């Protein structure tokens, strides 16, 4: 498994104007994250509104992120309910130089264990790129059990890791015990506990807003400065509690609007923030350390 799949990986938020990507603001956002020292990007997934994007925007985004990622690695979530779209995204990831692809299970159409195994096997077989399972049971309706991941690890030569957003610390620990598997925690409220449980890093929504804080925590932990790591984790936990009272898309995009001083736009299909919500988020972002 490549050693580079470790560290702080923002679940990349993507600004929109209507249904078109706002590349000017995205360029500013990527530059800020790269300068903060993040290790990678996880793109076209939940925080990035990937499941609401058309294929044109997805292909444009893969190319743009790879070209502007600095030294960070790029993992592309290729999940779709259209298998031809998955194949197209895999080809684009290879063409433009992404470092890995990922996929959650089929959504809308619920799966069982055998269905999940067959789906992941089919997606992984499309490419020589490293492959990550993306587990987000609260959105897909199916939890990818560590037992299944262990089986897949033995069957798929390019399966190198998992992004686990289950917010189940016992599951993170079980996954981390699978030999050769890079486990990335996807729940911001478990950032430090997941590292202690054996995760290689975290794919974080709030790292879009506070990249320096998340990078400093990871460095403190890897340098065994555990007192500092705990202090930073408590700050992150406070932010997560305050902001995640709202839906993820509203809290992250509202926070980024406050950070950049202009709208970090959601797609038109999402409701805008109410005035009281925007004020609440601006207050949290203004008070919390970066």
Please provide a written account of the structure:
By secondary structure, this protein is α/β, with parallel strands linked by helices. The chain has one domain: Aldolase class I (TIM Barrel, Alpha-Beta Barrel). 47% of the residues lie in helices and 14% in strands. The chain has 12 helices and 10 strands. The strands form 2 sheets. The protein has an 8-stranded parallel β-sheet with strand order 1-10-9-8-7-6-5-4. Strands 2-3 form a two-stranded antiparallel ribbon. It is globular and about 50 Å long. 49% of the residues are buried.
Q: What fraction, in percent, of the residue positions are helical?
A: 40-55%
Tell me which CATH architecture applies here. Answer: Alpha-Beta Barrel
Overall form:
globular
Terminal Cα span: 32 Å
Q: Using only CA atoms, what is the Rg?
A: 18 Å
How many domain units?
1
Strand arrangement, major sheet: 1-10-9-8-7-6-5-4
CATH homologous group name: Aldolase class I
Class based on secondary structure composition and strand pairing:
alpha/beta
Mean pLDDT: 93
| Total number of helices | 12
CATH topology: TIM Barrel
Order of helices and strands: EEEHEHEHEHEHHEHEHEHHHH
Give the assembly state of these chains: single chain
**Largest β sheet strand count, sense and barrel closure:** 8 strands, parallel
**Which CATH first-tier class would you pick?**
Alpha Beta
| Number of E-state strands | 10
Contiguous uncertain segments of 5+ residues: none
Tag the structure with descriptive keywords.
10 strands, globular, two-stranded antiparallel sheet, 290 residues, 12 helices, TIM Barrel
């Amino acid at each position: 498994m490549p050693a580079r799949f470790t560290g702080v990986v923002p679940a990349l938020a993507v600004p929109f104007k209507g249904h078109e990507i706002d590349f000017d603001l995205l360029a500013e956002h990527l530059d800020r994250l790269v300068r903060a020292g993040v290790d990678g990007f996880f793109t076209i997934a939940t925080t990035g509104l990937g499941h609401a994007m058309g294929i044109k925007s997805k292909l444009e985004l893969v190319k743009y992120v790879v070209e502007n990622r600095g030294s960070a690695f790029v993992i592309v979530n290729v999940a779709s309910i259209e298998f031809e779209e998955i194949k197209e995204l895999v080809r684009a990831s290879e063409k433009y130089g992404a470092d890995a692809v990922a996929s959650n299970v089929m959504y809308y159409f619920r799966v069982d264990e055998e269905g999940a195994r067959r789906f992941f096997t089919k997606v992984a077989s499309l490419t020589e790129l490293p492959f990550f399972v993306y587990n987000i049971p609260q959105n897909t309706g199916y939890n990818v059990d560590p037992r299944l991941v262990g089986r897949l690890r033995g069957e798929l030569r390019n399966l190198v890791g998992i992004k686990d957003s289950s917010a189940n610390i016992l599951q993170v620990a079980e996954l981390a015990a699978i030999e050769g598997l890079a486990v990335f925690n996807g729940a911001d409220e478990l950032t430090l506990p997941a590292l202690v449980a054996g995760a290689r890093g975290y794919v974080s929504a709030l790292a879009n807003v506070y990249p320096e804080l998340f990078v400093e925590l990871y460095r403190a932990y890897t340098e065994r400065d555990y007192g500092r790591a705990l202090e930073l984790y408590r700050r992150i936990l406070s932010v997560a509690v305050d902001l995640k009272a709202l839906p993820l898309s509203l809290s992250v995009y509202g926070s980024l609007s406050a950070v950049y001083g202009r709208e970090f736009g959601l797609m038109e299909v999402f409701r805008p923030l109410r005035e009281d919500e925007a004020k609440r988020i601006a207050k949290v972002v203004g008070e919390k350390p970066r």
